[in-house]
Structure formats: C-alpha cells, structure tokens
Write a structure and sequence with these properties.
Layout lengths: L22 H5 L4 H30 L9 H35 L8 H19 L32 H35 L12 H33 L12 H35 L6 H14 L15 H13 L1 H15 L8 H21 L4 H7 L3 H31 L5 H27 L16 H31 L37 H6 E4 L2 E4 L26 H14 L5 H24 L9
Antiparallel strand pairs: 1-2
Length: 639
C-alpha cells in the first residue's frame, strides 16, 4: 500500500518537532512555563559565573598590593561581573518569573506570541555566549559595565610602546554587539508581555483586579520598551566609533564624550527599576499570603509602581553631577532624585501595613521578602544622599557608591527573586524546597551580604576609589577589605546551600500539592506543575483575590473556610486534555536567533569576509523568520 502524502508537508521548511519529553522537547518548546524555567536555569548559571568573578575581585582586594590578578585581568573581571549580573543574571531571572507566573496569574493559557517568546530566550542565551566567547578572541570587555567614552573608544600605545588597537577594538565590539543581541531579546519580551497582559486576561479580571506582580510586569515591560532603544543607539554609535572611526564621542574630531553618559544613563537609571520592580511585585504577592490578609493599599501600591516607572526617566543625570553640567541642571536632577523616593517609600509603608496585624508565618519566602524590605530601605537611605550635590561630589567613584547599588540590587532585587523562587518552586515542580536548608540559605545570605557591603560605606567615605586593582598599605582600608572578602565567601556558601537544596528537593522533596501556601491568586488554582494548557476551564474572575474568595467566605473581618467540595471550589487539572489546542513546538525561533548571533561575528573581520559572514548569518535568520511566518501555529486537525 502506497504511503499517504503529508498534506501539510508543503507548508513547513523543517519537519515539525514531535518530541514531548527529553532534550528536544525543551529546545523546540513554545510553552511559556518551560521557557520560564530555561530562563531560570540559564540566568542562574550566569549568576554563578558572576559570583566567581566577584570572589576573584574580593581576593585581589583582601589586603594591600594584591597579586591574584594583574591590572588587565582585573579590569576584565570587574567589567564582566557587572555586565553579567545586570544583563545576563538579574534581568533574565525576572524574565523567568514573567514567563512562568504572569500568564497563570491572569488566567491565560499562554502568552500572546509563543514563538516570539522562545526567540527572546534563545537570543538572550546566544548573546551571553557571544559576549563570553571574547575570552578566546582577544579578551573580555574591560571598560566597566557602563563603558564610558572616550576611554572606551580611544586607542593608544601600552607602556612598552606597542599598539593595542586590535585587542581594544575586539573587546569593545564584544561589548557593543553582544549587548545589542541581548537587548533585542529584552525588547521582544517587552512587546510580548504588554500584549499578553492587555489582551489575554481572564473574563472579569479588570486592570484593578490584576495581582500586583502582574502590574509590575506591565510597568517593567513598558520601561524596557522605551529604555532599550536608547542604549541600542548608543551601542551602535560605540561600534561605529571603535570599528569604523565614527567619532561620535571623540572631542578632538567634533564628538561629545558626555553624549555617551547621557544616553547610557537615560537607559541606565530606568534599568535600575527594570531590575527592582519585579522584586517589588514578588514581595507584594508573598507578604499577603504569609500575613493572612489582603495587601494593604492595593491602589496606592499599583500607582506608586507606575509613578516610579514614569519618574525613572527623569533622574538619570544624578549619575553625572561631577561632569560639569552646571548648578541649574544639578539642582533640578537633585530634586527629581529626592522626589522619586516618595513612591518607593509608599511601597515600603504599604508592605509594613500588610504585615501589621496579620497572622504571620515565617517560611523561607517570607524571610526573603522581609529581608528585601530591610536591606532595600538601607540602600534607599544611602541613595537619598546621592541627591545632595555637594555630598555626591565627595563619594562619586568611591566604594560608597558600590555599597549603595549593591544594597539596592542585591539587597533589593536578589532578595526578592529568592523569595519568588521559594514561593513558586512548588508550582513549577510539584515539590517543596526544603525549609531547613532554605532558612540556612536566608541567614547565610543576610550575614554574608551585610559583611560584604556594609563596610564599603566606610572605606568609600574614607576615600577608597572604586575600580582600582590594588591599594598600598597605610590608608586604613585593610581591615574592612578583609571583612568584605570574608563576607563574600559567606555569600558563596549560601549560594551552594541553595543549589544543594534545589537539587535535593527536585529529586525527593516533599510533594507540594496544588496550594501549599494557602495562596490568594489565580495562578494557584491549577495543578502543580500546571498542565500545558494551564487551566481546564478559564476562570471567571469576580474579585481581586479570586482564589481566596473561592476558598473562604467573609464573616466580618475574618475568613471562614467553605466546606470541601463546595461549588465554588476550583478543580485543578491533573490529566491531559486533547481537545484544548495549544501552539506546537518549533525550531524556527532558535534558528533565527542563531543566525543573528553569527552575523555579529562578521563585524570583527574586514572586506569580503565581513560581507560573507554578516550576509550568511542574516540569511539564516531570515530563513528562520520565513519558516516561522509560514508555519501553522497549531495542528488543528489533531484536536
């Protein structure tokens, strides 16, 4: 009997992926939950790499005249520590939560553009690999994560008189092109999340019934949408300066070196809120659950997040008080820096109001949420001092600044992300993270964090410059630098405890059940882990804490449990429904991302080789995009 021709064969470039388990099911997935988990694993791998770089920095500075690294190696390490933590660890960890939790919180079966979602992950992964491939091709970027021009664009002789032009150009190209590749993934994700939130909410879920984390996802996505193009333009200009002699930032050729600072910090300060707002959203979900009461001042909390997003674009020049903008500009940006503390303070008071009078429980997610409130408040108070221009003059480019932004980004963003991992791990895996190891993780993190970064305030005010590879004895910095180094190894131990906890819990952790925390929001109404289609029936939302109201009736100011089996109880889906059509797996997002990354290497060459590599990479990317465009989104006939 002759084989029947495949009627869909002429619509695909590749044979449609069919793997439902194993390696290829992850490579070709368009499931937002799997993509979120891949973000977590990849970003945490980069986080460990950046942590190892931090240990090298602290070993170098543990005592005077450090010899662990030479000056060139130190410049590369501290630059890549910052680049990796900002662009390859903290931002993608937030994206992992956006991918996994946000569609569940709004009662959606998937994101708006599943293939675009997969593309954003692959372009992030390949962009990170692209930047780190610089290790084998001339060295890693060495100009700091902010890479100030014209130092980053100028080329001169080394002390022996030999030119370092080729090496310098290579490092700056890896920085500029690599961040453009990674930034494209962030831009694509922003569009996807905005469209998903605005168009795919469950029936009855108005904007003011959305969970706070979903609101912060929306605000963060708009920040990325408007901030990423700014740094994109600056990175293109940097690339043309170092590769083609563009002279955008060379004052001897009519360029403006301060232009780079304006463009970088127009992105860079909203970037701080891109990193911290997701953590704020996570804490706003964790605190009500473990305080057993609704979030205090929901509307104020939401609008303060929106206000932070708007005001974040108006404070960038407080990074530039020492460049000579003049007293009027300095005074104006000093005032806006003070004003932006107001909505942040509103959030802190709302969190304290949520805790006040609650029936508190203290599992690990709650501990990390409370840790964020305490540590971020310290970072915020030191940040207010940056708004005082004369004070800012004194601590610019000292370790006081390093202490401040680590209290904000480690004590704020990372504590919040840890809280989210412990909170949603049962939903991701169906198992609980171990509480004993979790508490060890929290207390070691809190101890190591304060040992490492609190003394930096002291040595900064004593005049220790940042970005120095060694210092002579006799300045009084030795003791506190040794304390900081000890603290950094305590942090490393805490990360090891966390990794062990994840590995052990994933294999034989306590079975979580569908609602282990007695949660309040829609994402906990489905099974743990959720089915591919998330919900057997899309929930009808009638209140802000929908799941809580399905479990409890209100009697005065107390919650009374509805008897098991009541008609309002959500039934989680533990089986498989073949009648629910979902987007199929696809190779094309990976192919397109790979082609764009290959094209990036062409800029390092010249002549016809440059044309061939760029054209070849773009051809692969376009091929992937055409396959993506003409591939049916799902096989309707199979359902």
């Amino acid at each position: 009997m002759a084989a029947t021709a495949d009627p869909k064969g002429n619509r695909t470039i590749f044979r449609r992926p069919t793997a439902e388990t194993g390696f290829w099911s992850w490579v070709t997935t368009t499931d937002h939950k799997k993509i979120g988990i891949m973000y977590f694993v990849t970003a945490f791998t980069f986080f460990i790499i950046a942590g190892l770089q931090a240990l090298l920095i602290r070993l170098q500075l543990a005592g005077p005249d450090g010899q662990v690294l030479n000056a060139d190696q130190y410049n590369q390490i501290f630059t890549m520590h910052g680049v990796t933590m900002i662009f390859l660890a903290l931002m993608p960890l937030s994206a992992g939560f956006f991918n996994f939790a946000m569609p569940l919180q709004i009662g959606a079966r998937d994101v708006a553009f599943p293939r675009m979602n997969a593309f954003s992950f692959w372009i992030f992964l390949f962009g990170g690999i692209f930047i780190y491939s610089s290790i084998f091709l001339g060295g890693m970027p060495d100009g700091g994560w902010f890479n100030y021009a014209p130092l980053s664009t100028s080329v001169g002789p080394d002390p022996s008189g030999d030119t370092i032009a080729a090496e310098h150009v290579s490092r700056m190209l890896f920085y500029s092109i690599g961040l453009q590749i990674v930034g494209l993934g962030s831009l694509v994700s922003a569009v996807n999340f905005i469209v998903t939130i605005l168009n795919m909410r469950a029936p009855g879920m108005t904007l003011m019934r959305m969970p706070v984390f979903t609101w912060m996802t929306l605000v963060t996505s708009f920040l990325m949408l408007f901030a990423m193009p700014i740094i994109g333009v600056a990175l293109w200009q940097l690339m043309f300066d170092v590769r083609f002699g563009g002279n955008f930032f060379d004052p001897t050729a009519g360029g403006d070196p301060v232009l780079w600072q304006h463009m970088f910090w127009l992105f860079g300060h909203p970037e701080v809120y891109i990193l911290i707002l997701p953590a704020f959203g996570i804490v706003s979900e964790v605190l009500p659950v473990f305080s057993r009461k609704p979030i205090f001042g929901y509307a104020a909390l939401v609008f303060s997040g929106i206000a932070i997003g708007f005001m974040g674009f108006g404070v960038w020049a407080h990074h530039m008080f020492a460049v000579g903008m003049g007293p009027v500009a300095n005074a104006a940006f000093g005032l806006t820096t003070m004003f932006i503390a107001v909505p942040t303070g509103v959030k802190i008071f709302n969190w304290l109001g949520t805790i006040w009078g609650g029936r508190l429980r203290f599992p690990t997610p709650m501990l990390f949420a409370l840790g964020l409130i305490a540590m971020f408040t310290i970072g915020g108070l030191s940040g207010v001092t940056h708004a005082i221009v004369p004070h800012n003059y004194q601590h610019t480019d000292t370790y006081y600044v390093v202490a401040h932004f680590h209290y904000v980004l480690f004590g704020g963003a990372l504590f919040g992300l840890y809280a989210g991992i412990y909170y949603w791990f049962p939903k991701m895996t169906g198992r609980m993270l171990g509480e004993r190891l979790g508490k060890w993780h929290f207390w070691l993190t809190l101890l190591g964090f304060n040992l490492t970064f609190a003394p930096m305030h002291i040595v900064g005010l004593q005049g220790m410059p940042r970005r120095i590879d060694s210092y002579p004895a006799g300045y009084g910095w030795e003791f506190w630098n040794l304390v900081e180094t000890i603290g950094s190894f305590v942090i490393a131990l805490s990360v090891l405890v966390f990794v062990v906890n994840v590995v052990l819990s994933r294999r034989r952790g306590e079975i979580a059940g569908d609602d282990p925390w007695d949660a309040r929001t829609v994402d906990w109404m489905t099974s743990s882990p959720p089915a591919h289609y998330n919900f057997e029936e899309i929930p009808q939302v009638s209140s802000r804490d929908e799941f809580w109201h399905r479990k409890y009736a209100v009697e005065g100011d107390r919650g009374v449990r509805i008897p098991a089996g009541a008609s309002t109880e959500q039934k989680a889906s533990h089986g498989h429904r073949d009648d629910i059509a979902m987007p199929d797996p696809s190779y094309f997002p990976l192919v397109s991302a790979l082609g764009l990354t290959v094209a990036g290497y062409g800029v390092f060459t010249g002549g016809w080789a440059m044309v061939a590599i760029i054209a070849g990479g773009l051809l692969v990317a376009v091929w992937g995009l055409f396959g993506w465009a003409f591939e049916p989104p799902m096989e309707h006939g199979e359902h």
